[in-house]
Amino acid sequence: MVRFVVLFVGLVICLAEGKREIPIGAIFHGDNYESEIAFKYAIERVNMHEKHFELTPIIKYVSKDDSYKTERKVCELVSEGITAIFGPSSMLTSGIVSSICKTIEIPHIITHWDPEPFGGWDPELQAMTINLYPEADVLSRALQDLIVDYTWKSFTIIYDSDEGLMRLKDVLQIHGPGDNPITVRQIDDSPDYRPLLKDIQSSGESHIILEVHPDKILEILRQAKEVKMLEEYQSYIITSLDAHTLDFEELKYSRSNITTLRLMDTKSFDIKNAVHDWEQGEARMKKVFRVSPEHVHTESALYHDAVKLYATAIRELDATEEITPSRLSCGSKNLRQWPFGLRIVNYMKVKTEHGISGPIIFDDYGRRTHFQLDIIELNHQEGFKKIAVWDPTNGIIYTRSQEDVHLQIVESLHNKTFIVASRLGAPFLMMKEKKEGEFLEGNNRFEGYSVELIDGISKILGFQYRMELVPDGKYGSYNKETKRWDGLVKHLLDRKADLAICDLTITYERRTAVDFTMPFMTLGISILYAKPVPQPKDLFSFLSPLSLDVWIYMATAYLGVSVLLFVLSRMAPADWESPHPCKQDDVDEVENIWDMLNALWLTMGSIMGQGCDILPKAVSTRVVSGMWWFFALIMLSSYTANLAAFLTMERMDASIESAEDLAQQSKIKYGAVLGGSTLSFFRNSNFSTYQRMWAAMESTRPSVFTKSNDEGRDRVLKGRGLYAFLMESTSLEYITERYCELTQIGGLLDSKGYGIAMPVNSPYRTAISGAVLKMQEEGKLHQLKTRWWKEMYGGGRCDEHATKTGADSAAELGIDNVGGVFLVLACGCFCAFVLGILEFLWNVRKVAVDEKVTPWEALKAELKFAMNISITTKPVHSMLSESSSAKSSMRSASRRGSESVGRMHNIKTGASLMNMDKIGFVFNNK
């Protein structure tokens, strides 16, 4: 009855205004109330502006799964002369409508998701169908681009129907052979989703894609909140284009990131105008209808745009040829085709329009292949807020700047308290020593580089923090057997901490599980080893460059050469000469100066490099002498070159200078911290040397691995040069600043950095990295390292020692090394002194005999003369004391008589002692 009233009113209006009536049909399901309103008032808006025709709606209602009734309703519409059919929204019933419309060539316009059939699209079957809903493959590609842009390496898909899983075809193809697995979980009709959500939580997954009917979205998220699955490190992507229509008021303060897609721009004038028409139209019908532009369903917007697009096609085609409706029949006997249908569809395919759902462009199959999607994110203040747009040509284009994102994150950090996990290890984190009567709690219990670093970051960003120790005290390594992480990484994966800060190395394996900030310290692997142990001090170290055998051989050679020289000189005529140089021809006798004493003196002078005043004259003796000089020169040069090097060299039982040296020997054992990044480096390295080192470490028993760096340090100290510890250079530098007996061997084996770890996709990573960069630029990171490495708790203790014993400078010879030389010299001087005393006493005795005085008188006279340093000449015979006057008178004549004889005797004696026989002619001439 209502339909006839509407047709009658439309006919009256048409007759009054002179407009032709063009009926269009629509099939709706019972839950399409908003879409029906959009359809009707879009027609009303079109009729207000059209002058030559008026669209007349004829609406039918069917259930979603009643294909038989749907067929009957289509035939009824065809018999009433409709020029196009809109809907229905069910894939099951829509297929029947498309088939009938294709047969009688009536345009069929749909607004729901329609997947590509198996075997591809058939142009014949799709000839009369136009679909304003985004094409399935293109929409799936939009989801794929979003996931890739979010850098989700793993995720879980929750879906409720096979149709929904088909919509994620391209998303499922993101997964590669080497990527983390994608988990797909289907929910059933049970309203309790908690067991499924708990399973996902226990797996450690934090990225979830919800591909479910809009009616289930809120309930799933509510239950996720109950099981702690709406925390700040969980992220959700909702694939439904109608998610924005839901009331997220109770969830918008959750800390999770919730993102969805929207086909329309809810801020546009067109949608606001359309919503106004809907509300005013229902008000005229005495009905209340309220909807905001932000909550308009996608299907309603598509019905509105579909009517406008169809009206445009009718208007432009009608300008060249009048389009008239025809009453057709579904019966095979009276089957006729509408002559205008195919022309209208083809025109709509090539027509480009812009509706409240954005740009509308179709391909040859009538699929909407070009459209624009808003990427919206749930915001605490505004609900869903647009952050980017996507289209098939340009992909994702963000509408907010990075500065806006940073400011938003920084604002969210205020009044937030981070749980910061760490582990004990100097100088990064240490327990503060209590003073008497002092009680420490909270963060005051700790001190170290990590505490001051996070404190500096918190002051920049304005958040609070609470330090906690990881229970097992480990950094974090992955167990391939249990497929679980331990240490700090596990603490983050279990959401028991927001940040992890210590000497935690950024590695590829850890990066797959957690996120890291930019490095706050760079480092590499090096070798901790005991410094060379000096030999015990020895007074006779100067003898060490030559072995005992060499010294014996030298002494033997010395004696042998001396004897040989003596024998040859006795045999050689040239070494026998006159004692008077001026009388060489006519002499009664000749003499040979080469006695054994002179031969020994010559060889000694040669080996000491000082030479001798007398030289051999015979050819044979000269050859022997020359050979000995050559030997003495070589030995002296070798001794001089090796003496300083030997005495300053710090010898060790076994010496290493690099990792290659370690790998090529088996005496010195070496190891690293169990479960640390250093161990992973050797285990995963493809370099042959490091592979060999890993095999040696793994096979050594007892184990060479330690639980901590401190244990490794102690093991090196106790190893006495038989154990080396592989560790990171920063910790090694800290140890060698305080333990002067330890040193770093070789350079860095790799290059890496320490970073602050946090759960994957943490929204605070960029802000914290920015704070670290700011501290680095201001020099605060360098100040912190200097403070905790070189100043606090014994830092710098080895600086003075390192200055004195630089790696490129030789140590000076100390008295401990060359004291033996002085001892030998002292012994020689002592012996010379003793010989001098004996010689003096012997001379005193001789004087006493010659002068016929008592030895005591002679001793006193000689001592008196020796102590009188003013006298420069000495008489041959000394004048004795006046107390011997009686004896003196008796001896005076004798003394005077023998004075000249005694003088000549003394001269000859002196010349003989001084080997001055050759210059006797000087005295004789005088």
UniProtKB/TrEMBL annotation:
It is a multi-pass membrane protein. The record marks 656 as: Crucial to convey clamshell closure to channel opening. Residues 880-902 are annotated as: Disordered. CDD domains: PBP1_iGluR_Kainate, PBP2_iGluR_Kainate. The chain crosses the membrane at residues 550-569, 627-647, 821-842. Residues 427-494 form the Ionotropic glutamate receptor L-glutamate and glycine-binding domain. InterPro entries: ANF_lig-bd_rcpt (IPR001828), Glu/Gly-bd (IPR019594), Iono_Glu_rcpt_met (IPR001508), Ionotropic_Glu_rcpt (IPR015683), Iontro_rcpt_C (IPR001320), Peripla_BP_I (IPR028082). It is found in: Postsynaptic cell membrane. One of its GO terms (cellular component) is ionotropic glutamate receptor complex. The keyword Transmembrane helix applies. Keywords: Cell membrane, Disulfide bond, Glycoprotein, Ion channel, Ion transport, Ligand-gated ion channel, Membrane, Postsynaptic cell membrane, Receptor, Signal, Synapse, Transmembrane, Transmembrane helix, Transport. The keyword Transport applies. The record marks 683, 774 as: Interaction with the cone snail toxin Con-ikot-ikot. Residues 880-892 have a biased composition (Low complexity). Disulfide bonds join 740-798. Residues 417-791 form the Ionotropic glutamate receptor C-terminal domain. GO terms for molecular function: glutamate-gated receptor activity. L-glutamate binds at residues 505, 510, 677-678, 728. Residues 1-18 form the signal peptide. Belongs to the glutamate-gated ion channel (TC 1.A.10.1) family. This is Glutamate receptor 1. It comes from Aedes aegypti.
